[in-house]
Amino acid sequence: MAACAVASTLVLTGCAGAGSLGSSGDTITIAMVSNSQMTDARELASQFEEENPGIELKFVTLSENQARAKITASTAMGGGEFDVVMISNYETPQWAENGWLVNLTPYAQATPGYDENDFIGSLRESLSYEDNMYAVPFYGESSFLMYRKDLFEQAGITLSPKPTWQEVADAARRLDSPDMAGICLRGKPGWGEVLAPLDTVINTFGGRWFDEDWNAQLTSPETVAAVKFYVDLVREVGEPGPATSGFSECATQLSQGRVAMWYDATSAVSVLEDPASSAVVGKIGYAPAPIVEKDNAGWLYTWALGIPESSDKPDAAWKFISWMTDKQYMKLVGETLGWERVPPGSRLSTYEIPEYAEAAKAFGPLTLESIENADPLHPTVDPVPYTGVQFLAIPEFQDLGTRVSQQISAAIAGQKSVEDALEQAQEYAEVVGKTYQENS
């Protein structure tokens, strides 16, 4: 259902299946991932309800892996279970092509002051299909290295402006001790868990998932070297229990002073620089995603909000989405919860707010630079037939990535060798590759 014309008063009427915005009894069900920024949004949502007494919000909050499965199943089946879904730049273009999402560009353009052109260009493009946005970013991220400046200084360790993975590994081994792990790296199964950082390592080592003819490359020398490097590093000097560690677990490890480094999402600053949750505020240094062969190795990702076509309340759903992704929401978070907790990496104007610029001076410019320099169209050293840095933008990747991640996690747990894990992963990838070869 394309969005219909919208009056400047923001009272949206006339769309099939939807009454006037905020009509009595509108309950909007929102499926969200349980990350810190989303928790803040839920905390502030009472202000939206006060301003919009005709709309009641119902949140369904899930872990990342659970959310992906449940939201995908619900949206694909058209069950109408959710009115707003939190999805990423992986799902959005594919689901838009499938006709599963409402086109949000007409809504955005008819909402005074919303200014969709204020979104960082790389994110806006990644959430678009045929030049229309089908989801709008809540926050955006790339990836970078976070490290304890004080520990590096005490040990006399200096990183290059663009550190290499070998530099990082050397530093991790020097800083590792019985009381302090050298580095935290995700090992939890899930295509959005361990594979997110690992894929950037594979890319910069010169590896890739498929060659230009869709021949699987997961047992190539470059890919094997990258995965072996990652697995060996986290097993030797990584956090306790790495095979069950994801974003949240590593955030806790670094924020509580238990690890010396962490390579992960730029959005982690909301935890690390928050005095209410972190014991290392002001002690963290930030560096670009480590490299080997390929420059600009950081990923591009956004948690964004979309409206399933099956929702019968798209007008009220947009009202909530536009509130949660508007310029004014950034100021609300900063003034209410603290400027370090403002959702990063979505709007250019956020970086022009004086209070935020001051709070984010250690990480803000690098976050913006990393997002703008991420290159999902050219993610690898050698050419590939797919797009995406830390994922492959093909429908099969949810299942393929999950299966491969389970093999990698088993290697991190010491249950099998990297070589055996990648042999099995190669078989999974070959099945997908043959499908594309047959259809070419």
Helix content: 40-55%
What is the structural class?
Answer: alpha+beta
- Strand arrangement within the widest β-sheet reads 2-1-3-10-6
- Number of E-type strands: 10
- Report, as a whole number of angstroms, the end-to-end distance: 32 Å
Q: Catalogue the unreliable spans.
A: 1-24
Biggest sheet: strands, sense, closure?
5 strands, mixed
Mean residue pLDDT: 92
User: How many H/I helices?
Assistant: 17
Strand content: 5-15%
SSE ordering: EHEHEHHHEEEEHHHHHEHEEHHHHHH
Whole-angstrom Rg: 22 Å
Shape: globular
Oligomeric composition of the shown chains: single chain
General description of the model:
The chain has helices spanning 36-51, 64-77, 91-98, 105-109, 121-126, 149-155, 165-175, 195-204, 221-237, 247-255, 269-272, 314-324, 327-337, 354-359, 364-373, 397-412, 418-438, and strands at residues 26-33, 55-62, 84-88, 128-129, 132-133, 136-141, 143-148, 261-265, 284-288, 301-306. It is an alpha+beta fold and 440 residues long. The strands form three sheets. The chain has a five-stranded mixed β-sheet. Strands 8-7-9 form a three-stranded antiparallel β-sheet. A two-stranded antiparallel ribbon has the order 4-5. A hairpin with a 2-residue loop joins strand 4 (128-129) and strand 5. The longest helix has 21 residues, at 418-438. It is globular and about 55 Å long. The chain starts with 25 loop residues before the first strand and ends with a helix. Residues 1-24 have low confidence and may be disordered.
